[in-house]
Amino acid sequence: MRRFLPLFLIFISACQTLPESDPYIQKQIDLELSERDDLIVEFEKKEFINPVRYKEYRLYASKLSEFTDDILNKLNQTDYSSTGTDSLNYYFDWLSSIIFPFDNSHTYLNNQKQFCHELIEESKILDVNVNHHLQLSIVRSQNYCLRNLLEDPTRGNFSFNKIYPVVIENSKVLKRGEGYRARILMAAVDTLAPSITKVKGHTIEINNNGESVLNIKTDKSGSFIWEGELIWMNNFDGIKRVFNIGSDYTVE
Questions:
Q1: How far apart, in whole angstroms, are the C-alpha atoms of residue 203 and residue 225?
Q2: Packing angle between helix 51-77 and helix 131-151, nearest 10 degrees?
């Protein structure tokens, strides 16, 4: 019996390091949730001042808050060590997609995710409930993302290195009495990451400003439609974007 006593003491000591209900851990969780509420209020204030820039931020923050509460509720209702870790994996992967591009390596989130997996494995060996510890890791990860979203002023921005004015005229040939109309706007391009335009059945030319120019021969009368897509990958966030394009014209 004596030879098993040290192992028994080690087991008891390990269990004491992962209590099922720790008032200190719960207090930390409550503090993190209180900070989360304060951060949400800050998002709402910034959206009120600058809705164009911060509306997307606030929507992210609200969705993240709801997602986190859902995970916390599940942890209150069941033991994750017995139900698996799919929800936790999905949660941390989703956080990683939000925090890009200001933490490309996702070091903090990866560490928290690994910590949660280690907790679950320990809980299976020691037969203890680690849900409070998982909850603390989750709310800390949540607030880490919210703080970065709130503090980083460039999220959602695009990177361009050239701007120039563009005049788009309805027509250069007018009849007397008709009004001349033109749209004037500022264009911005990234010459280091030019867009790619594809139009079915037609060849696209690129001018000196990096604009795609579509030329179609009008050797037949009738109404016609052209369709294609514009593909662009911004160097700022590395995300590939595909836009459907198209229009119609009539040849008399």
A1: 15
A2: 180
